[in-house]
Write a structure and sequence with these properties.
Layout (H helix, E strand, L loop, with lengths): L1 H16 L3 H42 L8 H8 L17 E4 L4 E6 L6 E5 L2
Antiparallel strand pairs: 1-2, 2-3
Length: 122
């Protein structure tokens, strides 16, 4: 009978000790995710900066920005002469390009707050 009581006490203690496990694991998950989100957002900003540099070099060579239909299409104008590896969003998002011969806008949606990060020729 003592074995049954002891087993019950141990299992009760383990169960009661784990009632907050979900909350703790969510908090740990958030602590792990925050640096990952910050890292991906920093990569997005760096990606757009490198494409901006490539576009500036393209403009210096041709006197106009490329008339690309989309961000993905932009790669055919810039790779390999102005940028070696054309960046893509490090998460599930996508970069956007809107341009004319005289100006452009590059944008990415940031994970941390859902805001749009934009770089442009102006």
């Amino acid at each position: 009978m003592y074995k049954i009581i002891a087993a019950f006490m141990i299992s009760s203690t383990l169960f009661m000790g784990c009632t907050g496990c979900t909350a703790r694991s969510e908090k740990v998950s958030d602590q792990i995710q925050d640096p990952l989100i910050e890292s991906r957002d920093a990569a997005r900003k760096a990606d757009l900066a490198s494409v901006r540099t490539a576009l500036a070099e393209y403009y210096a060579a041709y006197g106009a920005y490329p008339l690309a239909a989309s961000y993905e299409d932009l790669s055919r104008f810039l790779v390999p002469n102005y940028i070696r590896v054309f960046p893509s969003d490090p998460g599930d998002g996508a970069y956007e390009y809107n341009g004319s011969e005289s100006s452009y806008t590059l944008s990415a949606t940031l994970e941390e707050d859902g805001s749009t990060y934009t770089v442009s020729s102006r």
